[in-house]
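W.,

You were right to be curious about this one. When I first looked at the sequence I had no strong expectations either way, so I just let the prediction run and decided to look at it fresh. Below is the sequence, 469 residues in total, followed by the output.
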Amino acid sequence: MEVINTINDYLWTYVMVGLLLGGALFFTVYTRGVQFKMIPQMFKLLFESSKNYENPDDPINKKKTISSFQAFAVSLASRVGTGNIAGVAIAIALGGPGSVFWMWIVALIGSANAFIESTLAQLFKVRDKDAFRGGPAYYIMKGMHKRWWAITFSVLITLTFGLAFNTVQANTIVTAFQGTFGLPPLWVGIVTTVISLLVICGGIQRISKVSEIVVPIMAGCYILMAIYIICAHITDFPAVISLIVRNAFGIEQIMGGGVGMAIILGVKRGLFSNEAGEGSTPNAAATADVSHPVKQGLIQTLGVFTDTMLVCTSTAFIILCSGVFDSGLNGIELTEAALKSETGEFATWFLAVAIYLFAFTSVIANYYYGETNLNFIYKNKWIIYAFRLCVGGTLMIGALSSLEFVWAISDITMGLMTLCNMTAILFLGKYAVKCLRDYLKQLKEGKDPQFTYKVIPEIEDEIKEAWPD
């Protein structure tokens, strides 16, 4: 743990915070604030079906393609997980209420990173039988012609999502169920592993169908619970907002080094949750069948806001309104104590079920990210079968490991993966901006934007497979 924490401190203190926030500011200016000025368009596009775009010469079977909403649900399934409940609680417990402010900053400006990476994923996607496939490995390979870089990213995301992040999900499930029902970690781990394997063996179609049903329901119920608690403390709400802002910039925190801790933990836990710039959600974004790359880029940008500004903020307000944030508890136990103080014993049952659904959908989405990148490295069904077994094994490891260990390992792999992806999109972002300009031009002309490879002639050979004339 001492070695792991030393690596994490260096990586996040000196590299990741500056790269993420610096890159986000650069893309916010470069796209003229696309994440703010295009919000109405994001909502308009969200529920558009892939059936709205029909190309009679397209060999892709439309009945088996993934709609914009399904791709959004898969990426949201990965985003909305234990990071929203346990991760936010950890940030508040260790970094103070000010860390919530920096989560908001990461979401607001970091969503520009999400737009760029998801648009690139659509632009450079490839056909794969009855679906599309893509992500950072594909746009690094086709846009930069650096196969070693693409493979490095593929290995890192497979380790991060397919293995490390799933230990976090399993660990949080076990903690919640052990505290609520007194169930032994071994049996909770076994049940979670079996159910997860049954779903992930069905491929992206089954994963997307489960996600589009479970994710909106579980997120909606959790947000309603937060609204109830906020309404119960409506007179204290201004004081809670003041506490967050004061703690983010306060004199006491500056003198004690607390501001730096709040920023680092806010960025860490914010990134773990919303994944903007991390390189994960582009793998889901690439699967959508849309008429223009920017459409899915905008929809995935909305996912960042949904995750952080709604779900993460709900957890933060639950904890801060309850007044138990400085009780010495950490992780899911802090969130559970906050809910229990507000709603009684019902909270422990509700949170245990919510945690299971949050974590379960994250596990199956995380698996898909690993699978698609293993197929990029070398497509072989036996490798995928072995990977599925490894996912099951890491779920068991997470169920039986300590909270500190699983989060520390995840922070290292997440940081390295994000470093790899952010560097790539800083080089390739110009193509996403060209797509955006083409999209805005067609909107201004009153058209439903349609993209062809001729829009960006310098890379037409790399993109004409998915974007015919």
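Here's what jumped out at me. Residues 130 and 149 are 28 Å apart (CA to CA). And, maybe more interesting for your project: The first strand starts at residue 126 and ends at 128.

Coffee later to discuss?

I.
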